Each structure stands twice: as structure tokens, then as C-alpha cells.
Amino acid sequence: MSNNESASMEVEVTPEQKRAEERRILSEGNNKTVDISRNVKFLERGIAASEVHYIHRALRSVTALRKRLQSDVLVEIIPTYSATASQQVVSDCLKSILESLGQSAAASAASVKVCEPEVAMYFGLLAQLLLLDGSEYERGAQLSNVLVAMVSSTQRRTLDSVASRVFFYYSRFFEVADRLSDARAFLLNALQTATLANMKETKAMLLTLLLRNYMHYKLYDQAERLAAKTSFPTDAPNNLLARYLYYMGRIEAIQLNYSQAQLHLLEATRKAPLNAATAGFQQT
């Protein structure tokens, strides 16, 4: 994945917070199970209190964790969770994650923890990263189909931040397989669902993904119509706003509206995070 794409998925944190998180992870050696279990606790706390900042805290370490994540860690943790009888979609999700990693979906005798949809989605996000980094694009696309279907059937406010990242990698798998057009219809339906469910971060992500989708195939008129008929969430994360403004600037430039294009592109550079991962974006 390019640095620009990676930067769009980072939870916004200060440089000091990022360095502190990396030092904490390094100080704990290779015990990746501890990191994932800690993040699960943050997710569960956020679900219980309906506080999204706990969700963001769980997602904050994903970038650092990704560098040393291995499938055997997920395979060890996931069977210790089980879904209730009324959460068949969660059970199917956990099963699909294990199967995508080449493991059987047999339940562990120690399955005593109830798996919330947000936790299952977090496990799915980690599996997406493993499959993408391992160039297992077909498996990744299949797993992503299961994950995004779960989002559509489970509309919860606390699912928003995790779901937005799952959609990003859903689109990414289709892009690297040169089948990005195949994802467009589902992304459009998901945008409508996210809008009705008031999932603002997911809506913002889907708008940027659809603009990228249209522009990839030089469908600039369709991209402009989409932007005209929708409103970008005002409280969306700055990294998504920067990407949205960048695409809008390119659309305006192609339509010869150079003054408006310059305004959008300048604002995009102001909103983009300032770190090594965004250097390419800033230069573009």
C-alpha cells in the first residue's frame, strides 16, 4: 500500500501520542496477544459507555501493531469468543475470519466471552491487514464482503469508526485486483445506509472511496454529480476531509474551474496530517 493510502487510515493523534504508543508496544516485546486483548477491552468499554473515544484509542495502535502482526495470534484469540444465539451475523463473521486465515472454524471449549459486533469487526480489520500484506487479495475480498455485509445489518454508533476502516480495505482489495468497478454498486448502497443510520465517519469514508472509484475510471461527471447530491459530514476526521477536498480539487481542475480547484487543494494540504506518511500527498 502506498504511504498516501496508509495515511488516510491513521487515527488522528499528536506526534507525541504516536511515539508514546510505539514505545509502549516495543517495551512489551513480542506479546501481540496482550496488545489485541487490551484493544478489545477498550472496544468493550466504549460499547458499554457509548463513548467513541475508547474506540479510537483501540484503533490508534493498529498501525504499529500491523508491522508485527501474525495470523497465529488471531487464530489463538478468536476461538475464545462466541456470539449469542441472536447474533448469527457475528458468528458467521468470526467463522469467515478464521477460514480466511486458513483455519477451521471449530469453537474452543474455552469460549466464554461474548463477542460484540465491534470486536468481531476489529478482528476482521486485523485479518484484512494480514491478507493485504500477504498479497492474498482474493481471500481478502471474500472476507471483506462478509464484513461489510455485517455493517449493513448491524447499524450501531459505536461501530462507525471500525466500519469506516473496513470499507477502506474492502475497496482496496478490489483496487489491487483491478476490479474496482465491481465494488461501486455496493459502496453506493452502503453510502445510503450510512447516511440513514447517521454513521458520519463511515459516510465520509464512503464518499471519498466513491470519488476515487469514479476518478480511477475517468468518470468525472459522475463524480461531480455525486458530490453535488451529497454533503460531506462537517465533523469528519481531518484525514478524510483532506482526501475529500483533494478529489474535489481535481474535479474542479478538470472542469477548468481553476480558482475553486486551488482553494480545495490548498485546504486539503492544511487539513492533511503532517508526518512522513503524508509527504507524498503534500507534494501531489
Low-confidence runs: none
Helix content: 55-70%
Distance between the termini: 17 Å
Our count of helices gives 16
* Major β-sheet strand ordering: 1-2
Q: How would you spell out the order of helices and strands?
A: HHHHHHEHEHHHHHHHHH
Query: Major sheet: size, sense and barrel closure?
Result: 2 strands, parallel
Strand content: under 5%
Content-based structural category: mainly alpha
**Which whole number gives the mean pLDDT?**
85
Overview of the structural elements:
- The protein is mainly α.
- The longest helix has 18 residues, at 32-49.
- The chain has a two-stranded parallel ribbon with strand order 1-2.
- The chain is built from 16 helices and two strands.
- The radius of gyration is 19 Å and the shape is globular.
- The protein has helices at 3-7, 15-27, 32-49, 52-60, 62-66, 71-77, 88-100, 117-133, 137-153, 160-176, 184-196, 200-216, 220-229, 238-254, 258-271, 279-283; strands at 81-82, 113-114.
